[in-house]
From TrEMBL:
InterPro entries: Cyt_oxidase_maturation_cbb3 (IPR004714). The keyword Iron does not apply. Residues 59-71 have a biased composition (Polar residues). Keywords: Membrane, Transmembrane, Transmembrane helix. It comes from the Bacteria. It comes from Flavobacterium pokkalii. The keyword Transmembrane applies. This is Cytochrome oxidase maturation protein, cbb3-type. The chain crosses the membrane at residues 6-26. Residues 48-71 are annotated as: Disordered. Coiled coil: none annotated. Signal peptide: none annotated.
Length: 71
């Protein structure tokens, strides 16, 4: 019977230790944003393509205006 009291006491201390560790992790900001980093890797290529398209469109517009100015 004394082993049960010992195991219950040890399990309570372990539970308290995990609770303290959880609160410390939350306080340090470890759980602030856990969705965006996992999704960011899926959309990096798409944003790079969009930026390159915008850059190409700007350069085409600039070439068009400089050609019309020359005439």
């Amino acid at each position: 019977m004394s082993v049960i009291y010992l195991l219950i006491t040890i399990s309570i201390f372990v539970a308290i230790a995990f609770l303290i560790a959880f609160f410390m992790a939350v306080k340090s900001g470890q759980y602030d944003d856990d969705y965006t980093p996992s999704v960011r890797m899926l959309f990096d290529d798409e944003t790079a393509r969009t930026q390159s398209r915008n850059h190409k469109a700007k350069s085409v517009n600039q070439n068009t205006t400089t050609n019309s100015e020359k005439e």
